[in-house]
Amino acid sequence: MNVSSHDGVSIAYDFLGDGKPAIVFVHGFCCxxxxxxxxxxxxxxxxxxxxxxxxxxxxxxxxxxDWSSEGLGADVVAAxxxxxxxxxxxxxxxxxxxxxxxxxxxxxxxxxxxxxxxxFRDIEWVRDRKQVAAQxxxxxxxxxxxxxRFAGDRFxxxxxxxxxxxxxxxxxxxRPSVAVALQSMLLETSPTLASRFEQVRxxxxxxxxxxxxxxxxxxxxHIRDFRVTYIPKVGHFLMMEDPDTFNRxxxxxxxxxxxxxxx
Length: 263
Hints:
Order of helices and strands: EEEHEHEHEHHHHHEHEHH
CATH class: Alpha Beta
CATH superfamily: Alpha/Beta hydrolase fold, catalytic domain
Oligomer: single chain
Radius of gyration: 17 Å
Distance between the termini: 35 Å
Number of strands: 8
CATH architecture: 3-Layer(aba) Sandwich
Strand order of the largest sheet: 1-2-4-3-5-6-7-8
């Protein structure tokens, strides 16, 4: 399926299954909707499942002029609106968590809950400009090698090399101009991230790698209802590294969010 986002950029998405609430999966930086392949069929047994390629990624259009987290959030909203979904749970990995948060602010009455996947580690953290500049410089110098290294650093030494190679290859196939634009976008939005979270009305949950601890105290200063569940022996791409455990944990989180919605 394809739908036009707020600025006319074509957004590609898949949907399957049936049932409420719909589960909408949002990928991370320089990834695509295929990163949720292990989740789509599993959750489609009882829910409508939507996987979205954000602008600049996968099969979606790349002709965006103004890159912003609000604009990426609007890409998700476009798919939700196109399908007429009234009850959704947004699941966002890494940068996709921030994007899902922006989508939740745009359609608050439709969102029952927000689940961040190995993200929201410290919503008060402000990115270092020198580090971001160095990352952007490396992307411009040798994008493929820099992105492969960027991806590899997010796994454990003992991670399955097949999964590592799959992720590194797909991320290295991203457009360098989009990667640079997104790095700049994330730098500019980090100082205001906590205040954006304060506006979210839905409960927020986080499923994180055990190696990437979440600053829960910081989160609870700005988020009304927040909880973290950790998965051991996985890196950043936990939904691909240990899909059975991840799906079981997410299933429990979805059940909890559904119960909260009817209380």
